Amino acid sequence: MQTPWKLWRELDRLGQQLRGVTERFTDPLQQKRLDKLVANGLPCLQGQVPLTDRVALFLVYQPGGLSASTFGTLRWLAGLGYAPLLVSNAPLLPADREALQSLVWRAVERPNFGYDFGGYRDGLTLLEQWSVRPEELLILNDSIWLPVLPESDLAARLAAEPAEVAGTILRKRGEERFLESYLYRLRRPALEHPAFRDYWSRLRLTSNKYYVIRRGERGFSAAMRAAGLRVAGVYDTETAALHLAEQDDDFLHRTLEHAAYIDPHLQAERDHLLASRGRSFRSATVAHVGKVLEKRQLYSSFPYASVQLMGYPVLKKSAEPISRAWRQAHLRAIEAGRLHAPPPPILSEVQARDAAG
Known about the structure:
The chain is built from 16 helices and twelve strands. Helix 9 (about 235-245) packs across helix 14. It is α/β, with parallel strands linked by helices. The radius of gyration is 21 Å and the shape is globular.
């Protein structure tokens, strides 16, 4: 029997597919108007951060004003040597434009069409218009808080990864392999590859989330892999799951204590394991973790273990129940002194998001 959330998700997906019938005609018209705007030049703010051979294209949609954590992420990017190009899918407030001056190389505003991949595409088009060809391009969006760890090694991992296209997590769906789309690191061989340019020039923009995921998140990785470019995630959840099974009982206990569930029967099974903790605790816990990972991701279901074993530095802002449960579990681990708190702006925003549901 499907849970109310799963039923709602399936109905929402069906609704998006039905809307896609009419959007097949309206989306090209919107894209044509957008292309004309971009060709004529989007509103641009010149910042004080100098241009380097490493550019960070940061896509945001915050019509009510930029969050404190967004400014923190920009400082983090500049501190790593990136020249931040902020692409906003909403008009920037005057106060934000002033605050951005010292934190970005440039900032542009565009209509909110095409979700993140629409903003990514237009940011890439602008770099071409400006004849900017970086050695490395970091593309990310504000659907996540980053970094949630005070000393994240994400930049070092990305630098050490030899793949032309890298990200945090390489997801697997059957034969598909695709990077989660909130962050990509691309080097010059990928940026100049014909397949990269062809993908973006052919991309059909839409604000239909169902098709954004398939054309964007899945389609981009598929196109790069088909062209022979290496696509890799720098956080290996499969290896981390194997290492989790090797940890001592106390570690396993903390992993369960700070786990996130949306499946009542799995949560009840976890509660029983924590209450009993008999001689079979280890084998039963390892089996339980394996059962959870058949449906869920390690980072969202077992945030304590993911931070301890991988140093995974991300929290998602998604309203999906598993993301909310993940945030709550992460906060509980912080309150228990098991995980380090993120920078204050991120912590307060996570707490507020959790309280708001």
